[in-house]
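Our consortium's second objective concerns turning raw sequence data into structural hypotheses that experimental partners can test. To show how far this objective has progressed, the report includes one record in full. It was chosen at random from the queue rather than selected for favorable results. The single chain below, 341 residues long, was entered without modification.
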Amino acid sequence: MWLAALAILIGLAILVWSADVFIDGATALAKKFSVPSFLIGVLILGIGTSAPEMVVSVLAAIEGSPELALGNAYGSNIINIALVLGATVLISPIIIRRGIVKRDLPLLLLITIIAAWQLRDGTLSQADGIVLLILLVAVLGLQIIMSIHEGYHEHEDDIVVANADSAHSNNLEHLNDSESLEKLEPSVTRGLVSLIIGMLMLVASSRAIVWGAVELATLWGLSELIIGLTIVAVGTSLPELVSSLSAARKGEHDMALGNIIGSNIFNTLAVVGLATVIAPIAADPVILSRDVMAMGVLTILLVTLCVFAFKTKRQFGRTSGATLVLFFMGYTAWLIQSVSM
């Protein structure tokens, strides 16, 4: 028991540090290669920080605990929007851009609907898992093409200002072309090293936290589904929480929102898809009536709040954040009540 508690404490400490390293590397590479921050959030942060969910769910499926895998994925999706995004915008409001409203949020909503439809009969077959993985490949391709195409236009003014500032700074410091070239490679190298080290440490520290949490939960006699929806979901969502908070604190708002959307898409398609291909899942009916329904309602709420912010030209701010956090508190109370019954 003491070893499990120590794993959680050390894991949390490493997690906070590694998230900063991870964000620094992603931001440096995004700026160096003029890649839109939202695309970095969707691909690198969204997929990278979902690695703990994928590892846990795949291992759970292999070891014959499919409900843990499903609870982990869907519980993480709920926590990502309600707690992670809610807490992030409470600290630093986000500007909602056109591409997010027109493409990314509808895509997330569609994928959530597909997930609910596949569970209508209470089972997920290997064919369902294959469909999810095929959709993942298509979605990632679409995200890459559309984010690059729209990202440059949406941030065109930012790039102009950045170039102007860079030129002005170079003039002040009297840097010549050779000196600039000498600084290019170390900058890219440092960005890649920070990104890789940060991602590896995020995954490793999350695994330590999850292991410790599951060990403690087992001693308390909780079911696999509840463990997956609560302790494991919270543990594997810690990278998203810390990374999004760090991105928002550094002013990378597109990256923070892209992290959440990318992570939820990846959880639904890749995490559930891989686990189902390994072992078909016979889900408890309560997953559909309670957890998938909560995930769907929360996704609709997110879309509504973002569309309202975009249409009224307001920030996705603290009122929306408080609404999402309150939803998380209500869902948690619902879970506790269902366990006690």
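The partners drew two points from this record. The chain has a mean pLDDT of 78. Strands lie at 123-124, 281-282. Both points have been shared with the crystallography group to help prioritize constructs.
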